[in-house]
C-alpha cells in the first residue's frame, strides 16, 4: 500500500473535523475524494502533505510513519497541488515548474539534462510551452493553476495529492488534465488522490471514490458503488437520476 490511514482524528481547537478515518490507497489508481463544503477534504490532504501535523501512528506512506520522513525525502514521495495557491512575483513559468525538481538535486546541485527534459515534458503536457517565459504574476488564474500542476508533474513523485486541481480550468483543460492523470496512474504506476466537486467527471475518471461527509468516510469503493442516487441524496440532500448510456454513467441533476 502506498498510503495507509489508521484511526485518523483531527481537531481545530475544539472542532473535531476528521473522525476515525481509515483508508488505504494503492499504486496505479486514481482516487476521487468528494464531499460537501467543510466536510474535511482539504484537512485530509493537508495532513497527508504535512501542512498540518498528524498524531503519531495514524498516517503511513510506503509503510513508514509520515512524521518520520525528512523534508526532502517526503518531497520525493509526495507532491501537492493545494486548493489555494500563491506564487511569489519574480519567477517565470519555467522557473516555477523547475522548482519541482529541487527535491531530487544534490545539495547545491545543478539540473541535469534529464531534469530539463522532465520540466519540458511537464510544460508540454499541461499546454504551457508557449507560456514558459512569462512571469507567473501575469497569468490568468487557470493558467497559474496549470503551472502548479506542471510543477507537481515535474516533481515526479509516486504519490500526488491534488486538492481541486481543476477548479479554475475550462472544460478542455479539465479533460486534458484528467486524461493526463489517468495516464500517469496507468503507465507510471502513480497513486493520485484528487479532490473534486464535479461528480460526473469523478464518475468518468476515478478508479475509486471516497465520499466524505461531516469528517467521516461515508462510503469508500468503486465509482458505481459510491456515487449512487441514494448516497448523493443522503450526503448532498439533492435528488438526482443516474442514467447509463453505453459504457458511461451520467448523473442528471
Ligand atoms: N485553520 C482552521 N481553523 C479552524 N477551522 C478550520 C480551519 N481550516 C478548516 N477549518 C474547518 O474545518 C472544516 C473542514 O474544512 P476543510 O477545508 O477540510 O473542508 P473541505 O471539505 O475541503 O471543504 P471545501 O469543499 O469547501 O474546500 C470546516 O468546518 C472548516 O471550517
Ligand atoms: Mg477544500
Q: Characteristics of this structure?
A:
binds magnesium ion; binds adenosine-5'-triphosphate; 253 residues; 2 domains; globular; 6-stranded mixed beta sheet; alpha/beta; Rossmann fold
Structure description:
By secondary structure, this protein is α/β, with parallel strands linked by helices. The protein is built from nine helices and twelve strands. The strands form three sheets. Strands 6-7-8-3-9-10 form a six-stranded mixed sheet, with helices on both faces. Strands 2-1-4-5 form a four-stranded antiparallel sheet, with helices on one face. The radius of gyration is 18 Å and the shape is globular. The site of magnesium ion (MG) has 4 residues, from α1. Adenosine-5'-triphosphate binds next to β2 and α1.
- Total DSSP E strands: 12
**How many structurally independent domains?**
2
Number of helical regions: 9
Uncertain residue ranges = none
Q: What would a concise description of this structure say?
A:
With 253 residues, the chain is α/β, with parallel strands linked by helices.
Draw up the topology in text.
Layout lengths: L2 E10 L2 E11 L4 E5 L6 H8 L10 E3 L2 E2 L5 H5 L2 E4 L11 H6 L14 H13 L15 H15 L3 E5 L7 H18 L2 E5 L3 H7 L2 E6 L2 E7 H4 L2 H8 L4 E5 L2 E5 L1
Parallel strand pairs: 3-8, 3-9, 6-7, 7-8
Antiparallel strand pairs: 1-2, 1-4, 4-5, 9-10, 11-12
Amino acid at each position: 500500500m502506498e498510503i495507509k490511514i489508521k484511526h485518523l482524528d483531527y481537531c481545530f481547537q475544539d472542532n473535531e473535523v476528521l473522525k476515525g478515518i481509515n483508508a488505504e490507497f494503492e499504486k496505479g489508481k486514481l482516487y476521487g475524494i468528494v464531499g460537501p463544503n467543510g466536510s474535511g477534504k482539504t484537512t485530509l490532504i493537508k495532513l497527508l502533505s504535512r501542512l498540518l501535523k498528524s498524531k503519531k501512528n495514524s498516517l503511513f506512506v510506503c509503510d513508514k510513519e509520515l512524521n518520520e520522513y525528512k523534508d526532502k525525502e517526503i518531497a520525493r514521495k509526495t507532491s501537492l497541488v493545494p486548493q489555494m495557491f500563491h506564487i511569489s512575483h519574480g519567477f517565470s513559468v519555467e522557473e516555477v515548474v523547475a522548482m519541482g525538481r529541487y527535491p531530487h538535486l544534490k545539495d547545491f546541485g545543478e539540473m541535469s539534462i534529464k531534469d530539463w527534459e522532465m520540466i519540458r515534458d511537464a510544460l508540454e503536457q499541461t499546454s504551457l510551452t508557449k507560456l514558459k517565459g512569462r512571469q507567473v504574476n501575469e497569468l490568468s488564474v487557470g493558467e497559474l493553476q496549470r503551472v502548479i500542476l506542471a510543477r507537481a508533474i515535474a516533481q515526479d513523485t509516486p504519490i500526488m495529492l491534488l486538492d481541486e486541481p481543476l477548479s479554475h480550468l475550462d472544460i478542455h483543460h479539465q479533460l486534458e488534465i484528467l486524461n493526463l492523470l489517468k495516464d500517469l496512474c496507468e503507465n507510471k504506476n502513480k497513486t493520485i488522490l484528487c479532490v473534486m466537486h464535479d461528480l460526473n467527471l469523478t464518475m468518468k475518471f476515478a478508479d475509486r471514490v471516497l465520499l466524505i461527509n461531516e469528517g467521516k468516510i461515508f462510503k469508500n469503493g468503486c465509482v458505481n458503488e459510491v456515487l449512487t442516487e441514494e448516497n448523493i441524496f443522503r450526503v448532498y440532500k439533492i435528488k438526482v437520476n443516474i442514467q447509463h448510456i453505453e459504457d458511461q454513467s451520467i448523473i442528471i441533476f
